[in-house]
Amino acid sequence: MSDEPYKSWQCRTCGYIYDEGKGDPDEGLAPGTRWAAIPDDWICPECGTPKGDFDMVEL
Q: What is the pTM of this model?
């Protein structure tokens, strides 16, 4: 288990934020799921933007 703090990632298209600490249970992503563990073909649940078009954000 990593000691790194959880990070958040924001969709460039719609502003949806994925928080590693909270996960997204509706998307099958348990709390604590790291960004790197999400499949590369995952898309934004709000607008369908590809994972590659998300940016890490400091909240």
A: 0.89
The amino acid occupying position 28 is G
13-34 tens-digit pLDDT: 999 999 999 999 999 999 999 9
Residue range of the domain that includes 35: 8-57
14 labeled part of a ligand binding site: yes
**CATH number of the domain residue 26 falls in:** 2.20.28.10
- Whether residue 58 is annotated as binding a ligand: the answer is no
Cβ of 29: how many Cβ atoms within 10 Å? 19
Residue 26 labelled as part of a binding site: no
> Does 51 carry a binding-site annotation?
no
Q: Does residue 3 fall inside a structural domain? A: no
